[in-house]
Design goal:
The structure holds two protein chains of two kinds. Chain A is of the alpha/beta class. Helices cover 51% and strands 14% of the residues of chain A. Chain B folds into four domains: 84 residues, no CATH class; 126 residues, no CATH class; 190 residues, 3-Layer(aba) Sandwich (Rossmann fold), CATH 3.40.50; 26 residues, no CATH class. In chain B, helix 20 links the parallel strand 5 and strand 6. The chains are: A alpha/beta, B alpha/beta.
Chain lengths: 288, 472
């Protein structure tokens, strides 16, 4: 798919996703070793976005499985459409079919509802499978994922073993909401996405809000990077920096001072307690 | 090279990182894909071997010592560590030689251990001017001031680092900078910059020392460093502040693991009696055929837990960990009550209604009345406990006592402990001292042990994990 690390980096930046060489290296390795990538990091650094971009860059179809508490095999892998099966049985009864015939009928793929995981295994084209927020799922689900991710195959009792037609590119994301098992972690290649460096964030701002003045952009990024270092319930993510830059641009602001920051702080900080914490100290966080 | 990677994995394991055979196989494959050049080698190793972010600092340290020391001998191409740890670009435009001279002067003017004021002034200057080159120079001076190093300095690395810091007036400088912050109205941004640079200098001193030791003792030194970094085996009372934070994080992790384990058991217990009402209701969906049976949920009886913590001196850290752990999984219990003591005992339960455990711990330690003389008095505490708090416990309660049983040669009052033990289901005692020290000097573990169902030695994180698994 990719022949070199440089190519990965270039293809990603063609999709407007700016990244460092280490991210490219990890993606390259994961594809070569055919292993899932586990992306961790604070909320809003572009974990889900990365999966979407990889899909676009490789020309693959993205299949997304959003995890939540209580997610089980039936919703993630496959389920028998038993209402349809019952209907079929009724019809068979009317037609006086024997059990053997009926059984062959109702356990065929027609009655199988494939959910994201099975869909990813059965697909003929190349697939990026995004398993989002794995940390929100239950432990049982985690061990069940283990089976799929290690062999890219799954066993359905009535149909036999289903093997992946093409091994999908698997990306798991996690917010470290819960620690999950070592077994799953060891099967993955780890990518820790952190908040971007000053220069990188500035590049992103110029890319997403191209009309912004250079000097204002620098001020914005410096301020955001400073308050990120404070102890907050939720530090501002890249998305929030972009929103803020957009808002300031629309307000026609040429530079930021205490007053402007205070009146727009709610764009950066989403918790009242965080705003109360930062607001009185804005002047000391201002870039020199 | 394969052998080198295997050796490196062994060192990581020694440092407490779990690494499986699959991971090693993967690393070998990965390295054959990316080669040994530049950052790629480092990233291949790190992204596959380090499953837990908390292990990353140790990985970086060992990577640097192991592969870069090989590199210096010209056997391996450079990795990322090399660039990362070179002194950063000087932010000050002043020529270096001046500072080098200054530093040398300071060096010459007898800055031995516990030196005078001059190096501190230099250090403050460097921090204020964000002069990395001068800082680098200071780090070298600090290490040089130690004179010839021996094996024992490696074994007591913490101490060695402190001595090096003293030599450049570290503590004085930190103190003065803190005061300056208040006096001169320094902004948060600038002060944060100072802290970063101080951290950098400390880190650099450690690095230089480690380098020195590795050049003296080779891989044995790396092995020693890895072993010392293994938090699971490190005794609680020897932890420094950063390590305490790290252990806190690990305890939260352990608590979550325990909590989900409980969830699993709860689910398995659901089999058994059929819940007819819910089964029939479910069957309506499938035209009256009960496709899936519903089972009645079993209630698991939850234990009651009281925890009696010695918070004197060296035991305090351990008590904090235990309280944190217990309160993180408090939904596993019918109720949890906690008591703190040194020579008197007071209940701390109300403070833990707060969701934030760290704040609750701070409150509990600040507001409960647990110390009169400052010296542990187990006898008096058991007397008070038996007289005042027994009514709140029942024959279903488990009482956990945390303490070293060092009674400062006061009365044992074991009858009162016996009285307590007759009124609760069981007493379990965790002792953070090595078993060999029990019943020596003023330790009277043996006197109290007969009234306890179990007595565990619990000196480090590994033992804490084992013990908790055993009693839950």
């Amino acid at each position: 798919m990719f022949s070199s690390i440089a190519e990965v980096q270039q293809k990603l930046s063609e999709q407007n996703y700016l990244t460092d060489r280490n991210v490219a290296t990890i993606i390259f390795l994961a594809l070569k070793l055919q292993k899932p990538i586990l992306v961790e990091g604070p909320a809003g650094v572009g974990k889900t976005e990365l999966a979407k971009v990889i899909a676009r860059a490789t020309g693959s179809r993205l299949i997304r499985l959003q995890c939540y508490e209580g997610l089980d095999e039936a919703k993630a892998l496959y389920e028998w459409n038993y209402q349809k099966q019952l209907l079929r049985l009724h019809i068979d009864q009317v037609q006086n079919k024997s059990w053997d015939e009926a059984r062959q009928d109702i356990f065929s793929s027609e009655f199988l509802l494939s959910r994201p995981l099975l869909e990813a295994l059965l697909a003929d084209e190349s697939i990026v499978l995004l398993i989002d927020e794995v940390d929100k799922s239950d432990e049982e689900f985690e061990s069940f994922l283990l089976e799929i991710l290690s062999d890219y195959q799954v066993t359905i009792p009535e149909l036999g073993t289903v093997r992946a037609n093409r091994i999908p590119i698997v990306i798991l994301t996690s917010n470290s909401f819960r620690e999950f098992g070592d077994a799953l972690k060891r099967r993955c290649i780890h990518l820790y996405l952190d908040y971007p460096s000053f220069e990188r964030e500035l590049e992103i701002i110029y890319l997403k809000v191209p009309e912004i003045q250079q000097s204002l952009g620098r001020q914005i990024v410096r301020f955001v990077q400073t308050i990120r270092k404070q102890k907050l319930k939720k530090a501002p993510s890249i998305a929030e920096t972009i929103d803020w830059a957009g808002a300031l641009l629309n307000l026609g602001v040429g530079f930021i001072d205490e007053e402007i920051i205070r009146s727009t702080l709610s764009i950066l900080l989403k918790y009242q307690s965080d705003i109360e914490k930062i607001s009185p100290k804005v002047s000391s966080y201002l870039p020199e | 090279m394969e052998a080198k990677i295997l050796e490196f994995c062994r060192l990581l394991r020694r440092g407490g990182v779990n690494i499986s055979f699959t991971q090693i196989a993967d690393v070998l494959r990965a390295v054959s894909e990316v080669g040994f050049c530049q950052d790629d080698f480092y990233i291949a190793l790190c992204s596959i071997l380090i499953a837990d972010r908390a292990d990353k600092p140790l990985f970086d340290r060992l990577f640097r010592l192991f592969f870069l020391s090989l590199h210096r001998q010209g056997r391996v191409p450079s990795g990322r560590g090399a660039e990362e740890h070179e002194p950063g670009p000087a932010e000050s435009a002043e020529p270096v030689s001046v500072h080098a001279e200054l530093a040398q002067q300071a060096d010459g003017s007898g800055m031995g251990r516990g030196a005078g004021a001059s190096p501190a002034i230099l250090l403050i200057k460097a921090i204020r001017e964000r002069n990395r080159l001068l800082l680098e120079r200071l780090a070298q001076v600090a290490v040089k001031s130690l004179g010839p190093l021996a094996r024992t300095d490696l074994q007591h690395m913490d101490n060695t680092v402190v001595q090096a810091k003293v030599a450049i007036g570290w503590y004085e400088a930190v103190n003065r900078l803190e005061r300056a912050k208040g006096l001169e109205n320094i902004s948060e941004t600038v002060y944060a910059g100072w802290t970063v640079n101080l951290g950098w200098l400390e880190h650099r001193i450690e690095q230089l020392l480690e380098d020195l030791f590795v050049s003296m003792f080779g891989n044995e030194a790396i092995e020693e460093i890895a072993g010392a970094a293994n938090l699971k085996e490190k005794e609680f009372y020897r932890l420094d502040n950063l390590e305490v934070d790290e252990i806190r994080r690990r305890i939260t992790k352990l608590a979550r693991k325990l909590a989900s384990k409980y969830a699993r058991r709860y689910k398995r217990a659901k089999r058994g009696e059929i819940d007819l009402r819910r089964t029939v209701r479910q069957a309506l969906l499938t035209g009256g055929t009960p496709v899936r049976l519903r089972y009645r949920q079993k209630k698991i009886s939850k234990p009651e837990l009281a925890i009696l913590c010695d918070v004197s001196g060296s035991v305090a850290v351990f008590s904090e960990f235990m309280l944190q752990l217990v309160y993180t999984i408090q939904n596993r219990f019918r109720w949890v009550r906690s008591f703190l003591f040194v020579d008197v005992v007071d209940e701390a339960t109300p403070y833990f209604k707060n969701e934030d455990i760290e704040a609750a711990l701070g409150d509990a330690f600040a507001k409960t009345y647990f110390s009169y003389s400052g010296f542990s008095d187990y006898g008096r505490v058991f007397t008070l406990f038996a007289n005042n708090y027994l009514a709140g416990l029942s024959s279903r309660s488990t009482l956990i006592i945390l303490g070293d049983a060092r009674n400062n040669w006061r009365l044992a009052e074991k009858d009162y402990l016996q009285k307590v033990s007759e009124n609760v289901r069981r007493i379990i005692w965790f002792n953070p001292q090595p078993r060999d020290n029990w019943d020596k000097e003023d330790s009277i573990m043996g006197v109290y042990a007969p009234y306890c169902r179990q007595v565990f030695e619990c000196r480090n994180l590994r033992q804490l994990e084992e013990v908790i698994e055993a009693i839950l």
